[in-house]
Structures are given as structure tokens and as C-alpha cells.
User: What shape does this take?
Amino acid sequence: MNLPFIVLCLAAFVHVSSYLLLARRIEPFMYNFYVVAWWSYIAMVDAALALRRKHFLILNRGLPFLLVISAAFWCIFELINVRIQNWYYINIPPMRLIRFAGYLFAYGTVIPGIYVTKEAFSALLGSIRVRPLSRKFNPASCVGLGVLLLALLILFPSQLFFLAWVFLIPIIEGYNYARGRWCFTRDLEQGKAGNLVSSLLSGLACGLLWEAWNYWAISKWVYSVPFFESLKLFEMPIPGYFGFVFFSLETVLAVNFIRESPFVSRHRLWIAAMALAFAFTSFAAIDRYTVFSYTAYVDQLSFLPQKKREELKRGGIETSFAIDPRELNQEERQTLALLHLKGLGPANLEKLRKLGVTSVSELERMTEEELSAALGEKNRERVKVYLRAAQQYQPSR
Assistant: This one.
């Protein structure tokens, strides 16, 4: 029995187990569902490819470096999100060390996930020949276009937020072309479209996986994108899936930029240290601007009598999502449902309780202005998320 087959079996077992642990609300594993689902998927695909190629693409000694680079790469978009405010995080662990580790391992899946999926599509599709591109390519203009798109994104975030998933493509494409390195344009000039098609498909496939696993997760992100809130597949507005397709191009270009750069190969340790520093600095910004709520521990549930909280802890229950609502009275169940509504969280729940709002139905009757003032939330798109969730809420029987 060879190593890739063993890894494939173990990864499949872990992947299936992650669904069971989430469904059964097993602490603390249920809060790590997204990370476990992604890394086990990466391991499964990498192992399946290794059965044929006789070597791993991701699960090798370069994995720690790739994980750090991937986290830093994604943090570019997290910092852009501070400006465009298109998503935010809910039910995040309150302990900073655990939270930062979660960021690192979650964002560390981005490059490995897209890259290994792209390689899987390449293996399935083989080479794809097209008519060679004959039009002269100007790499300097291409880079300039990318810089212009970034500037427009920063200046007009509400209107041009979608440029977040486009601007890096011409920057890296133009730079790689000018340096004589691999890029999609160079492939197309030779009549090769396999890498382009595989990359586009990997973006769509990974986008669907990202959104499906995020939809089921407890610690997750929520979108507050203007204009498209009524058209969703999982948490993502349907037009947003085009963003994943473009994002995959940026990611594959970044992978090849790193892989073919002599500077990177000579200074891997220094670059990893800089990337890690950048990532952790970004994590602090995420905490301040993008995290909306933290996991609620039993001790924080002041709407429950002290005796009941002690009974829950003696039963091994540490957090609110492990509580069986059937063990609570009607008033307590209503408040717990409000706490969990789109990850409202304990801090925001207490703000509402001070105003006498203790149930989803009472929140539903609030106006946008009232809820914004109650939560101290200036981002009206986030406020709309909770009003819509309250309107769509169906109490469990």
C-alpha cells in the first residue's frame, strides 16, 4: 500500500467525520468544520494526483511556506474589504491565539485549494489547442491598467467593489510577461488554452465549495453586498460567482510568480517571515473592522438563570451552539434564537436586551434606523442583513 493511497483514505475519513461532528454539534470540532473540510479536500485531491504523478504537489516540505504565502495573499483582499465592506465574520473564537491560528489555517487553504483543483482539471482535460494569439501584447500598459483598476476600486468602493477580483490579473500578467515568465498570454500566443480553461474551472469549483462549506459552518462569513441580496446561492449572490472565476486567474498567476522568481527561491525564509508579519498585522485589522460577533460561552448567557448555566457546564456544554433548545423554556428559546440569528452574537444581544428586544419577532419590528442605532453599526448593509434574516426566520418546532 503506497503513501498517496494511505493519505487519500485518511483524508476521506477526516472529511466525512467533519460533517458528522458538525451535525452532532460536538465541541470544539464543530467550529473548525470549514478549515477541516478544506484541508481534507486538498489532501484528497493531492493524493489522488500523486497516485498518478508519484509525487505530492501540496503535501510536501514546501507546505509551511505555501501556507504562509497563501494567508498573506488572501490578506490583500481582506484589507481591500476594510474599504469595500462586502463581507464580515460571525461566531469567531474570542481567544486571540485561537482566532489568529484559525485565520492562518483558513486563509492558508486559498492557494493550495485553487492550485490543486486547477491541476486536477488539467489532468482531466489534457492539452487544449486554439488559434495562436497574434495581437501584440504591451505588458507595461497591462500593469498600468491593473493599477488604474485598483485606484478606481479604492475611490469608488460602493460602485466598483467587483474590481477587487480583477485588478491583480493585469498587474501580475503584465509583470510575468515582461520578465519572460509563464503567464496566460504567453500560453495563448503558442495556441495553448489548457491552463486558462483549467484555471477558470477551478475558480468556479472552488467558489462553490467555499460557499457550500461556509453556508453550513458556524464560524463563517456573511456577505453584505449591495444590489444583489435577493439572488443567492448559499450565502453568495449569484453574480458573485463570476468573481471566483477571475480570482482563480489571479491565484494561479501568483503561484507561478512565486514558483519562477529567482528572488523568492533565494530568500524563502526572509519572505516567509515578511509574509507572516503582514498576515498577522492584517489579522488585527480584520478583528477591528470585519469581525462582527464572537462565539457565545455559557457563562455569557445572562438570559439563563445561573443554576441552568451551571447544569449546562456540568453536562459538558461550553458554548451556545451546543445547547439543545428543547431544554429551555419558551422565553429562553426565543432569546437563544435571537443570539444565533445570522451570528448576532452575545455583545449585540446585550445591546438589544437593554432596549427590551429579546426575540426575533421583536427585532423584525425595528426599523433600519433603530437597529443601526441600537447596535452602533454604521454599515447599513449589515443592518439590512439582520432585518431580512428576521423576516425570513422560521422557528424550529
Notes: The beta strands are 87-90, 220-223, 232-233, 236-237. The radius of gyration is 23 Å. The chain has three domains: 1-60, 61-289, 298-392. Residues 61-289 form one domain.
